[in-house]
Structures are given as C-alpha cells and as structure tokens.
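G.,

No rush on this.
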Amino acid sequence: MGAGKSAVLGEASDILALRHIAHAAIDLDALGLAHIASAASNDGVMYRNLQSVCENYASLGVKRVLLARAMEDRAGLELCHGAVSATNTVVCRLTASMEVMEQRIKRRESGVLQREYVARVAKLNDILDHARLEDFTVTNENRPLSEVAHEMLLRAGWISD
C-alpha cells in the first residue's frame, strides 16, 4: 500500500495508448471492493470478476493485461495467471520508503479506516519482502511518474527504447 501501483498503472496505460499498443489496465483491488456477508474473503469474487473482465477484453482482441495488485503469495499470483489466461507473466514490485508510503496512504485514505490502512503498510511490506514474487523491482520515489511507468514497461519487455 502506498507504493503507487494504481498511479503507475494509469500512467503505463497512457504510455501504451500513445504508442497504439492494445492492452487493458485493471486495478484488481477495485474488482473486489465489496462487503459480502456470506464470504470470509472477497478474493474469490474478485478473481471471478477479473476472469469475466479479461474474457470481455479478449473477445475484443486484447492480449496484454496490466494488473495492479500487491501479490502476497504464490496462490494469488496463480489465480491471476489463470484468470487472465496468461501465457507470459511478469511481476514488477514498486517500492518506496516506509515514510513515503505511509504519507501517501494518509493523504489518500482520509476515512474511518485510515489508521488501519497506515498500519497495514509496514505489515504488507514485510509480507512482500518474504514472498519475493517479483521478477524485478522499480523504485517509485523522488522521480516523475512517467519515468517510473516507462521503466516498468521497458523492463517487462512491453516497449523498447
């Protein structure tokens, strides 16, 4: 939380669009934003929603999908892989200092759960440190957003230059 996944996703999508590269950009957390009384977790419906959205894009010929999500474990990564029917998956971890990530969350989350979200930053960072699911890491601090997104796309092999 606070590393800038959603912002980099949007900028990467803009860069691809300017280059006329067909793609979909999906903030995965948004597909599971719900409270479902009968479910222990919203993850199941989130991945089913992802599969439906990806099927819709695939029917239009879209073969590239950018996803924003903090991948906490290999099981979640495999669910994403299956939902998008990916033949090739590249995972980029965005990083920033703890102070910067906490400041971003404080600015973004001004509601009743702000304290819990800020506390989650350090916990999630530790989870991601131990999971090590990324193929590469990009720093998203003290640099322009477009530079971060460009580096991510370049290292993922989606663009060249």
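When you get to it, here's the other one too:
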Amino acid sequence: MRHFRRLCVALFVSIAAVGPALAQDSAFKPGTVWTFTHIKVEPGQLNRYMDYLAGDWKKLNELGKREGFIVSYHVLSVNNPRAGEPDLILAVESKDYYSNAEQLAQQKKIEALLAADQRKLEAQSAERNPMRKFLGGMELQELIFK
C-alpha cells in the first residue's frame, strides 16, 4: 500500500511538472474576450432603444476604447428571431478580463462621464425596462492558433 501511495504521489508530481511544459506547446493562445448581451426590444420601442444605444451606451464603450480596455463594440440585429430569441445582440470585445481593481476604477470614470452615481445609473437602467428585456448573455474568449 505504501508503494502505491508513493507511486501516486510521484505520478502527481510528474504530471504537475510536465503540465506547464505541455501548455507552452499548445496550438493556440488566449485572445480577446467577447461579451454578448441578448436583448428583446418591446413592440414600438426599437427607435427609442437605439437612441439610448447611440447615446450613453456608445459613450461608455468609447471611454473603454480610449482607456484601452475595449477593442470594439457592435449592435447586431437578429434576422427573423424565433420565440424566446433576442431581437438585438450587443457585442463588446475586450482586450482581457477585468480585475476587481480595474472594474472599480472604470466604474468611477463611468460615473464621472455620465454625471451619475451607482444609484442614479441603476434608476436609469430601470427607466429603460419599458423599452427592452434582458434575455441573458454569454462571455466567450477567442482562441487564436499559433
């Protein structure tokens, strides 16, 4: 039994030592991070919601680009959405994942840009509820072949 344990420990140590070396020989490397937000626009609210996106939403993303966090952002229209599918997908491409400190620093800049604190921003988001519903979203990371 002791020999079996020693063998298991030796195997674990060798795998732990070889793992990073194998990762260096990977055929890919991590790329940019994409966040997709799925939006269902309420009937008759598309132009009003697009006005918001062309205003504050665009300002926020342009700030992120100037700060070097955001690479690109897009509003995508879903052609012929089926029941339960979004009308719009908001896509934001970031250089990498944010750390907590970066998130807090960016939040302060957003508040300054929009002249609003977190409570006011939440209230403004609630005011957009008659225009749209969030159907969820996803976060993806591109894998780039070497």
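The chain is about 50% helix and 30% strand. The chain has one domain: 28-145.

Enjoy the weekend,
O.
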